[in-house]
Amino acid sequence: MFKIEKDDAAYKTLHSKYEKPFMGLMEEVCSYNTGCNKDLLIQAFEFGLWAHRDQLRYSGEPYFEHCLNVANILAKFRMDSTTITAGILHDVVEDTGFKLDDIKAVFGKDIANLVNGVTKISEISGRKSLSLELRQAETFRKMLLSMANDIRVIIIKFADRLHNMRTLHYVAARKRMRIAMETRDVYAPLAHRFGMAQLKSELEDLSFKYIDNKAYNDLARRLSERKEEREEYIEKIINPILKEVKQHNINAEVQGRPKHLYSIYRKMKARNKPLEEIYDLFAIRIIVTDVAECYYVLGIIHNLFIPVYERFKDYIAMPKFNGYQSLHTTVVDKLGRMIEVQIRTLDMHRVAEMGIAAHWRYKEGKSGDSKDDFEAKLLWVRQLLEQYEEGETVDAKDFLDSLKINLYQDEVFVFTPKGDVFKLPKGATPLDFAFAIHTNVGMHCIGAKVNGKIVPLKSTLNSGDQIEIITSQNQHPNQDWLTFVKTSKARHHVRKYLREIQFEHSVKLGEEILTKYFKRYHIKMTESVLDELIHKLQFDDLHHMKAAIGRGDISIEKVFAAVTPDKPQEHKDNLLEKFLRRGKKRSAVQVEGVDNIVVHIGKCCQPVPGDDIIGYVTKGKGVTIHRTNCPNIQRLIEVKDRTIQVNWTVEADEKFKVQLALLGEDRYHLLRDITQAISAQNTNIIHVDLRSKDKIVTGKLIVEVKNLPHLTRVINSISKLKGMISVERVESFVKKKIAQN
User: Fold this and answer.
1) Is-contact 156 74, C-beta < 8 A?
2) Pick the CATH number of 656-737 from 2.40.50.140, 1.10.3720.10, 3.40.50.2300, 3.30.70.260
3) What pLDDT, in 10s, does the model give residues 99-140?
4) Where are the beta strands (DSSP E) in 374-431?
5) Which among 734, 660, 658, 728 is positioned nearest to 700, based on CA atoms?
6) For 335-361, how does the pLDDT look when each residue is reduced to its tens digit (9 = 90+)?
7) Which of 229, 463, 547, 730 is the most buried (most CB within 10 A)?
8) What residues have CB less than 8 Å from 72, skipping those under 6 apart?
9) Which CATH architecture has domain 9-211?
């Protein structure tokens, strides 16, 4: 156990410097929290001073200055003694020689868990060798996991980030930009998600200051120049409101709230207008005693000014996802200028400004909300985390995308046929709704009825819609789904499915390469040889080794070097000489300027002339042609010894098979009309499979086309048929359709 040496020169200097500010902090905490633990706070103060005694910040100030400022911000949030203590200690594990066990031994499990929740992943796991993006993703994931168990984790992190942003000018320019963008893109939206409006506004303005300093300074200067004019106008609006509510015996506080800089900047950009043409630079806020007075005052406002009814929002009856409640109305003054008015109770105002922090009652370790209410506020966090199974490898981009999708969303309320309500992000589709019901429903969703009418899966849902999902066991996710799903749950499961299918394809391809090469060089592929390969190449199992070979992550030369050092090396040029043979028939594809070669058209993506394509050198079979956006080729593009530039030869007269998927309403003569529409485009039909269920027809067609324009004409011709909902080109990216190339 360590011992604080209070006679240490550095410690004594710091103690003398910060004793008075700390006593002021403790006095503030105890002023709003009658059960504050002074002994705990003093112990944290002394421990923090000792741990950081030899450290300085970029500003040259003692590092403990930051810790004390974080604690002061938490006190402004009116947090309990435990949270203030963790705020003082939040950087001890990350930036000093003390370990988490030291915190736990001195301060207990709760405070240790809070400190752990805000500690960067690289510092506690020794994983500094990971990429910045992956470390960032794992840090956020760990923070969310901790937050799901104790909301105080994120409040401490907010305080830490806010003080860092207030002192960001001391940080190097390159790092400064990264931190500012991370704050704008993640922490400010996260503050909004938890209803902390004041915090969100300050984080956005500070980020704006460093991301676009010129625009920030210009806007700040121009607003400052018009400050007196703006304040005079606000007073002209407020005075008649105050007079009118007083006549109705309502005790109300009326204030003019200027909108923060970044909000104004976004309005200018979104509307493509200069500052002079942005009139809603502020909002009038009216704070009353109870809910009944909110609606009464609304009537008063609509009598004083001309209301813009389409811009009225009742967030009292239907609160926002972050718990925000208020009446919003927009009115027009005598000069024709629009003014936003917000009407709320004092409790609503406290929640609107402080968000999740306002829900914390300051009794040690207890929340003022009911358990169910607090659970509801954390539901989206838990739903995000549940997408990732325990022990599952986190895809950094996937996780960060999922987090941002959850942060940047307004909501719509939609219903099942039984009347159950689901909240979905604005812009959500029937497919998002299907995944919200259950993962398996989403995975096999083939169609949907919205308000009794069949609609495409990519249709946008509106509040009040009633949705019925149609499923089929033959339906599976495809790459196109990623272009229109909005929820992180849907996106995660679609990506996961596509990765699994791609993995299986890579395993089969790797097995084919191994088998052919072992046979060619007369080496027996015994279990012992494969076990030796797995060990030498450091793979977990045979499947992962085959997948790596199939993806091109590991060359066949390296595999055989592990088997025998005497195996001759084969290079790409030798491989091409062997497989790029001239034939009698002219090919539709030219490889690196050489035509008349043996090529295979990828079954997975079925390219046709007009598609952007790339060649993949398949050892043992030649060159396979894929569309450049084919899911199978995406991870192979970087493997330069296996991919090759190819071009279509426009004069080649060949037919190409393409599979189409149909969805429509069942009716008489549908099959006849489909075949006639295809024949009208001078197109041969290879295969037709139509199935009907619940008056919905699903089908697959295989047609022969000459090129992309020809295919487009065929799709358009079928799409125009009565009752046809969608006609899409299929990328056969499902287990039973894996391309054998």
Assistant:
1) yes
2) 3.30.70.260
3) 999 999 999 999 999 998 888 754 444 444 455 666 666 666
4) 411-415, 421-425
5) 660
6) 888 889 999 999 999 888 887 776 654
7) 547
8) 25, 28
9) Orthogonal Bundle (1.10)
Of 356, 21, 402, residue with least CA distance to 158: 356
Do β-strands 599-601 and 622-627 pair in parallel, antiparallel, or remain unpaired? parallel
pTM (predicted TM-score): 0.59
Reported for 65-71, long-range contacts at CB under 8 A and 24+ positions apart, including other chains, are 65/18, 66/91, 66/163, 66/164, 66/167, 67/91, 68/18, 68/21, 68/22, 68/25, 69/163, 70/156, 70/159, 70/160, 70/163, 71/25, 71/159
Gap between the Cα atoms of 358 and 350, Å rounded: 6
Give the residue numbers marked as catalytic: 94-95
Look at residue 697 and give its three-state secondary structure: strand
Residues 378, 148 contacting (CB under 8 angstroms): yes
Q: Name the helix (H) or strand (E) containing 366.
A: none
CATH H-level, domain 221-357: superfamily = Beta Polymerase, domain 2 (3.30.460.10)
- CA-CA-CA-CA dihedral for 666, 669, 671, 673, to nearest 10: -110
Buried b (16+ CB within 10 A) or exposed e, 522-549: eeeeeeeebeebbeebebeebbbbbbbb
CB count within 10 Å of CB 568 equals 8
Q: Where are the domains of the chain?
A: 9-211, 221-357, 571-653, 656-737
Q: Please give the Cα distance from 331 to 286 (Å, whole number).
A: 14
Cβ atoms 86, 111 nearer than 8 A:
yes
